[in-house]
């Protein structure tokens, strides 16, 4: 999978929390896929995805590849979008 600085919405398999404790089911921002080993410093287990998604640039969030459900490329966050964390 190759994705570098593509802006869009990633829906997730489970809820995530932001640093304030709010729950979200999706994230929106510039997304880049990288090898998990490059970020974590160790290899993932054989049953796990070998990549992570870095969302945002100022204060990025790192999401395990196995948590990604769908990706929809879009330049702006749609208006009717509950439970989506926007990351710059």
Give a topology summary.
Layout: E1 6-17, E2 23-35, H1 36-40, E3 51-55, E4 61-64, E5 68-73, E6 84-86
Parallel strand pairs: 2-6
Antiparallel strand pairs: 1-2, 1-5, 2-3, 3-4
Describe the structure.
Helices cover 6% and strands 49% of the residues. The chain is built from one helix and six strands, in the order ββαββββ. It has one domain (6-86). By secondary structure, the chain is mainly beta. Strands 1, 2, 3, 4, 5 and 6 form a six-stranded mixed beta sheet that branches.
Overall number of structural domains: 1
> Helix fraction?
under 10%
Number of strands: 6
Q: What is the overall number of helices?
A: 1
- The stretches of 5 or more residues where confidence is low (pLDDT under 50) are none
For this structure, the quaternary state is: single chain
